[in-house]
Amino acid sequence: MISPIRDLDDLKTFVLVVQERSFTQVAGRLGLTKAAVAKRIQGLEKLWNTQLFYRNTRKVIPTREADLIFPKVISVIESVKELENSLTNKDELEGILRVTCVSSMAKNFISEIIEKFQEQNPKITIQLIVTDSLLDLMEESIDIGIRVGTEIPSGLVGMELFKNKISIVASPLYLKTRKKILSPKDLETHNLLYLELHKTIQFSGTHLSLSDVTKERYFLSNDAASLVQMGLKGKGVLIRSFWDIEEYIQEGKLIPILTDQSLENFGSVWVIHPSNRTPSRRMMVFRNFLESECSLRFNQ
What we know:
Blueprint: H1 8-20, H2 23-30, H3 34-48, E1 53-55, E2 60-62, H4 64-87, E3 95-101, H5 103-120, E4 124-130, E5 144-149, E6 156-163, E7 166-170, H6 172-177, E8 192-193, H7 224-232, E9 237-241, H8 242-250, E10 255-256, E11 268-274, H9 281-298
Parallel strand pairs: 3-4, 3-5, 8-9
Antiparallel strand pairs: 1-2, 5-11, 6-11, 7-9, 7-10
Helix pairs in contact: 1-2, 1-3, 1-4, 2-3, 5-8, 5-9
């Protein structure tokens, strides 16, 4: 019969081994022998019926199964800590927050906001998972997601941070050497750079969509950063979320066009988290900080 986990020490040991990649170093941190650390890991492997680490003489390497289990173990440890804090009426702003967003958000404003937040809350560790895939927040044990959408997905709760305004821009050199763009129909003679998911966006007050004025597209990509670079190099008219290009607009590297005949917003940017998980105080403090910073930056 497989014995259950005795206490959190086994799970904490597992976390440290994943982080340190060494039984010896973990033994030193915990004040145990190397054999005792190995025994705890072996116990978990028997309990979960899976190999957790590849071992050699120099280091230990987590298996794919260990990588999948790791965030769930972190979540269990954090949940126990929150329970202990609630029982002692103590909910210190410390611990781990797992946050996810797309790469363009991380580059343009999320990383900066996290840096400011941690200056005020140095005991909170934030693990930022940057991916352009839509992760299952519950499955991946993620506390907070920042996403673009028209509504909050089922099973999640959230709050709108700001409208996802879509800007039409081009480089100064491009505008000097190409036909003037005075109306949406003028875009038909230009190379348009945009994500495929934006093609159905309509021009405000019309039934005309972006796809309706698309006659020339010589570069297509699902990578927003590549589209922005092509726009900066004067390879066409760029259509992007304003938060992804505001820095280049301020620097004069990209010039807004058709500002009086703009595209409709493409949904909003939301901060979301699982509905079946009671938010910790540090999670709520971070969410409120994020809302405040985004409001100052984007809702003026």
